[in-house]
Design brief:
Layout (H helix, E strand, L loop, with lengths): L3 E6 L4 H6 L5 E5 L10 H8 L3 E5 L13 H14 L4 E4 L2 E6 L4 E10 L5 H17 L4 E4 L14 H12 L2 E5 H11 L3 H7 L5 E6 L3 E3 L2 E3 L8 H11 L6 E4 L8 H20 L21 H18 L9 H22 L2 H6 L3 H9 L8 H14 L6 H14 L9 H11 L3
Parallel strand pairs: 1-2, 1-12, 2-3, 4-7, 7-8, 8-9, 9-12
Antiparallel strand pairs: 5-6, 10-11
């Protein structure tokens, strides 16, 4: 299936996407679409013959739990609504806790890397098979960008992906920006990963921008595509002609002409690499599996993922073997993303709190892990501020009270609510 050149469709740039020349297809975040009707922009694109692929972000197929049937049904419904030729998700975990670890469920609000171990691979493969059986179209999975590395990994990125494809037949969505991110953050050579993974299984390719700060690469999707990322794209193209290539942009959207310029740069990189392919290569032999392992891969995976996520979002002690500085970077990044998403979900909050919004949210989030989504997070912030008689400005406090009343209850939370917060904190192990 040939997709061609595409761009990530986002409501903020819907008009620009419709007007861009040479767009063969678009990708839309599945969770941002209703199951029974489409935004007018996507309807118009489909009427023009533009393919739309739903891209999921919340299944958490790399997590210890089996995929949630409701989430799978929602992804399947969106695929059918769009008439999509495939759906895509990530090789990541996004939540942890629950019965497997006898602890409260914690939400990361972000894609976190799974350990490249045989245990984690066994769990991932079973989850992928469950998802494949539940979806009406083929599934492709994306490699993710990571700020942290797991200790004691047994496989490289390429080996892990190759084994996943061998066992499940799943397709791959290769993000070359994520390969560059892992090169900077984890010292992994993109060329080695490309040599080891089965490039013939690639369904399409992502290209995105990021920024380096203090030696750490942040895959922001809010900056222009850099030359090193285009160089990785060239390396991939020298090995295979991918069916599709897509530009991702999720924030700080530039004018349409800048998006067009980035698409032109992507096409140019593909063309230059195709003009002079290197000598043929032979993929490394399949990595031999170790001796049979003890049962309980899900339980072991669940415990390790819960321990890591609890460190990142609840401030518990770091598990052995992790780089504590990198854990701090990841923890701050997760809290910052929560603040940004809550500001989009509830734009009235930064308006009411003004320049103090981010500081207030980060203080709130420092010991309150997300467990019920961003809308509950927004209400939680408002409750936290009101029970402590904030904000100090009386007019702002009245506005925040009215906002909370309209969404939660007719009476504002009182100081007695602190007992509820204390109980919640105790349950989360703080």
């Amino acid at each position: 299936m040939k997709l061609g050149t595409g761009i990530g469709w986002r409501p903020e740039i819907a008009d620009a996407v419709e007007a861009l020349p040479g767009i063969d297809w678009v990708e839309a975040v599945a969770e941002n679409l209703c199951e029974d009707h489409l935004p007018a922009s996507l309807t118009r694109l489909r009427e023009r013959g533009v393919t739309v692929v739903p891209h999921g972000v919340s299944l958490g197929l790399g997590g210890a739990d089996r995929p949630d049937p409701g989430r799978l049904a929602g992804l399947a419904a969106r695929a059918e609504l769009l008439g999509a030729p495939l759906v895509t998700e990530h090789i990541a975990f996004v939540r942890a806790g629950g019965p497997l670890s006898a602890s409260p469920v914690l939400e990361a609000g972000h894609l976190l890397p799974v350990p490249r171990t045989w245990d984690a691979l066994d769990v991932l493969c079973e989850n992928v098979r469950i998802a494949q059986d539940s979806l009406p179209v083929p599934l492709a999975l994306e490699n993710i960008a990571a700020l942290i590395s797991w200790p004691g990994e047994e496989l490289t990125e390429g080996q892990f992906l190759a084994e996943l494809v061998e066992r499940t037949g799943v397709r791959l969505l290769i993000d070359v920006a994520n390969l560059h991110t892992n090169h900077v953050n984890r010292g992994e050579d993109p060329s080695t990963a490309l040599d080891e993974l089965p490039v013939e299984a690639i369904a399409y390719v992502h290209v995105a921008g990021g920024v380096e700060k203090d030696g750490v690469w942040h895959d922001t999707h809010a900056h222009p595509v850099t030359r090193p990322v285009l160089d990785v794209l060239k390396q991939l193209r020298s090995r295979v002609d991918p069916p599709g290539v897509l530009l991702e942009r999720d924030d700080d959207f530039p004018p349409a002409e800048e998006l067009a310029g980035e698409l032109t740069a992507i096409r140019g990189a593909l063309a230059s690499a195709a003009a002079a392919p290197p000598a043929g290569r032979q993929r490394p032999a399949r990595t031999p599996e170790p001796a049979p392992r003890a049962a309980g891969a899900r339980e072991r995976t669940g415990l390790s993922q819960t321990a890591l996520l609890s460190t990142l979002v609840a401030g518990t002690p770091a598990p052995d073997g992790f780089d504590r500085r990198r854990l701090g970077v990841q923890s701050r990044a997760l809290a910052g993303k929560r603040a940004e998403v809550v500001a989009k979900v509830a734009p009235e909050l930064p308006e009411i709190l003004g320049g103090g919004y981010r500081e207030a949210f980060l203080a709130y989030a420092s010991n309150r892990p997300m467990s019920a989504g961003y809308r509950r997070d927004a209400l939680g912030l408002a409750e936290h501020l009101l029970v402590t008689d904030r904000p100090a400005d009386e007019a702002a406090r009245r506005r925040l009270t009215r906002w909370w009343q309209e969404r939660a209850a007719p009476r504002p939370p009182r100081r007695g609510t602190r007992l509820v917060h204390a109980a919640r904190t105790a349950l989360l192990g703080r």
